[in-house]
Amino acid sequence: MSDDEFRFETRSIHAGQEPDEETGALMTPIHANSTYRQDAPGEHRGYEYSRTGNPTRTDLEENLASLENADYGRAFSSGMGSINTVLNLLESGDHVVTGNDVYGGTHRIFTQVYEDYDIDFTFVDMTDLDAIESAFREETELLWLETPTNPLMSIVDVEAASEIAHAHDALCAIDNTFATPYLQRPLELGADIVSHSLTKYLGGHSDVVGGALLTNDEQLDERFGFYQNAVGATPGPFDSFLVLRGTKTLPVRMDRHCENARQIADWLEDHPDVDRVYYPGLESHPGHEIAREQMDDFGGMLSFELDASLEETSEVVSNTEVFTLAESLGGVESLIEQPAPMTHAAIPREERLEAGLTDGLVRVSVGIEHADDLIADLETAIESTLR
Question: Which domains does the chain have, with CATH numbers?
Fold first, then answer.
């Protein structure tokens, strides 16, 4: 199926997912094989060992590449597996510029794993292009971005940031998990690499863990393929099947996520116990205009800051009924969490507070339930604790 031939909604269902030639089965078969018969030593039919390649995984990789308008795609066993693969490109002495409010797991692998291999990281405010520019050094090889960021929903100008990276002969990689390719396609804006946690919106049902890397650069893809095989952080066929099931409904789910998030953000902005709302769809958001230019909608993730202590905020997020207190995001059900003791606990408190990750910060992944029920649930939890 040619990407130029069909729109996103059609490709999400059909790209990489032709009916099985032998049986006519409509759904992608789950090829539960570890090895494959060879016609002669070294002569196989495209597959030899499932760590190296699996037909179900190939279908997923083709589907994801189509959705990101990428030439190449690689799937991994987790989002961290995909991030680790990008970091495998680096060598001792290299330098990385990244955001000061990146996902806690990303911060952890940067500072607690790769810094031990003499790779240096500089954390800056990615909304400040001058700060990005100033952070580059001669040894900088990678600019790592999130947009919207996790959890402050900051918006980074992808096109401008990519130009800065390329002016310094560095790669620009973007974690596009929050936006998904339905809302934002960073390769079209100049990025070299797109990373996803397939666990989130692309899977969409909180029942699978996976990651992916997309690129238009053949040499990068070959290196990703080498590390994918050599390191072995690859998804099994059943995981690949579950993500393919998820991408079929991505457009309709994302439309509802966005619709609900807009209503909740508007309500929170007028709430007396809420000091600040972080949602790029609000005109008050400092990155609103850039988000309008590079995104097709504003997503289902938002954060808000309560006028409350760490303990009071913990009580609020523990008292919801429709929202489930849980880490992760992007499923059909709404989740709520407190970044300080949960997803961003790996970041030292002083560094966390300096980046704006306060004790009263709450992050919500807005699901596809009825918006009125979600608002009523938040209102009850806030009022029962703070009034």
Answer: 8-248 (3.40.640.10), 250-386 (3.90.1150.10)
